[in-house]
Amino acid sequence: MLSLYIAETYAIIIYMLGIFVNIHPIKRTPPSLPEDKKLLPTVDVFIPTYNEPIDIIRTTLIACKQIKYPQDKLNIFLLDDGGTLQKRNDPDPEKRAKAWQRYETLKNLAKELKINYITREKNEHAKAGNLNNALWLTSEGYSDSDTKGSEWYFCGLPPQKGGDLIVILDCDHVPTSDFLEKTVGFFLKDEKLFLVQTPHFFINPTPIERNLGTYAEAPGENEMFYSEIHRGLDFWNSSFFCGSGAVLRRKYLEEAGGFSGKTITEDAETSLTLHSKGYTSAYLRKPLICGLSPETFDDFITQRSRWTQGMIQILMLKNPFKQKGLKWYQKLCYTNNCIFWFFGLARVIFIFAPLFYLFFSLRVYNVSIEQILSYAIPHLICSLNISNYLYGKARHPFFSEVFETAQSFFLLMPTIGAILNPKAPTFKVTPKGVSLKESVVNRRVLIFYVLLALCILGIYAGVNKWIYSPLERGAVAVCISWTVFNLSMIIACIGALYELRQIRRFHRISTKEQALLIIPDKLKSFKANIIDISLGGLALTVEDKDFVPEINTKIEIVTWNSYGEEFRFLTVVKRFNIEEKLITLGVSFHESTEESKIVKYIYGDSGRWENFWESRERARGIVSGFLYLLKTGFIAMGRNMKGLIKFLFSEIKNYKKLGVLWKGYGFLK
């Protein structure tokens, strides 16, 4: 099969490029800033927004105001693409009203927080266009033609135009207070540096992690890239802009004509342009922002489809090997970044290839059992161990296979579409802050139930071949084993597509911090441990028999961040649970507590995010990793099947026609 040959060749190339990229990952230490503040560069913070919830934007803006940096050198800009003149003049009255409401709300929010508000005339070139509009509007000597129709509202005196550095933050990416303290120093050391990228840390799990229940026990889906791969790219001076959590030098951006907008991944494309001009980049592996992952699997696929199409666009329209200014190793790194996103095509072929042999005797693997034991098994063992050595702490064995298999079928059409017409893809914003009132079976799971049945039938057909075709037992053994492996991944995918409900207004994140509880009425204090935090409140444990909690009583909590800064909060007891000597307490912040104080405590401490990240860096053995994933997959699939049966019986009970049960179950949607 030519398709299998191509897929295997692709897999070998990706494997070898992965080893090359990660041959020597580097871990940078932030340079100290000069004591003389006059030597510090001016900084503009750009926060683009489109349709995200206002409360998410508000939190980010408050945190930006708390960044430690000389205030006369720091300007913050909210870039509103949801309140453009184009949207406020929309022919649809409902859309027009929403745009006006958003425009007024965000403008008033900017006025309240004393930051700059910018919107523009038309929604051209999506995020890149929004950023470029602000770039030219805030540049010295800009032309009105560059920013025609833009609106800029500022509080107090107009900020000094043309900040030396530009920070890009997605509106759901909340910065820590030391963001600039940890990043600006790099630019003072290297005049040719155009970028410092920081990792994207997420307070909530991806839908796959949440639905499988692996978030607390295994590294996050994005951690392999931000913990290991990006450090490897940094060694080759190929660390690239990831759209947010980054600092860029303005003069090099202006020299390149602003943010690139030829593709829908303006971040990586901009980096490619600036690297080809001979400028350098740096990656700081320290979480300095906290963002939100997509809440639902559909939103997750929307995000990954954009990344897939954007990187394929770069490969097709701005082929790294045709960029004259790039070094040979940078060309390899960028090519690896681009072709990785063909994994959807390869995964689909790897799932169907053994089935074609088991069902139709289409020879896909011509080998004897002796050859399997001599070549295939040693190669498999070596490659698994090398991968586990390179990425084991950031990605447990076989988790990549689950993540990629879960996405592969739904990235097929975006991948093929971008190959056939690379100029066609358009930018789609990933929805954030979506809630699920109840657990549901995602309609996309149908394809995996079909694959589950095909794999089981394929194994049955393989057993028959083993019995009745003894001369083919080598190929039969390989294809049965291959199908069993695919089956285990499909089981996990079925579990991942049972969407567990998410009704919390604020996401909680686990932590381990000391605190002191003070009962105002009784003048007593008790030692406690904070076990999770959110903007809404805290969860604590107390081991003191004299502590007797009561619902709705007020408690003052004293705690400290990793810098030793003290925080005092008045809280209200909302729930508690007593198990032997351990009391678990849930409290909410009292309504009198300043919002800025809560934001500073929850989001301002980069040490907390770093501790959480490192707490999950636990490597697993290959066998134990596979068994853990199999166990997790079976449990989650059980939930999915139970939910599906419940749904079917509910439909039948309501006397709905059988055809309605399948309505909307198109996986190519």
UniProtKB/TrEMBL annotation:
Membrane-crossing segments per the record: 339-360, 372-391, 445-463, 475-498
InterPro entries xref list: Glyco_trans_2-like, Glycosyltr_2/OpgH_subfam, Nucleotide-diphossugar_trans, PilZ_domain
Sorted UniProt keywords: Glycosyltransferase, Membrane, Transferase, Transmembrane, Transmembrane helix
Domain of life per record: Bacteria
Signal peptide (UniProt feature, chain positions): none
Predominant localisation class: membrane
Membrane topology designation: Multi-pass membrane protein
Assigned GO CC terms: plasma membrane
Subcellular location: Membrane
Any one GO molecular function term: cyclic-di-GMP binding
Record's protein name: Cellulose synthase
Lineage: Bacteria, Pseudomonadati, Nitrospirota, Thermodesulfovibrionia, Thermodesulfovibrionales
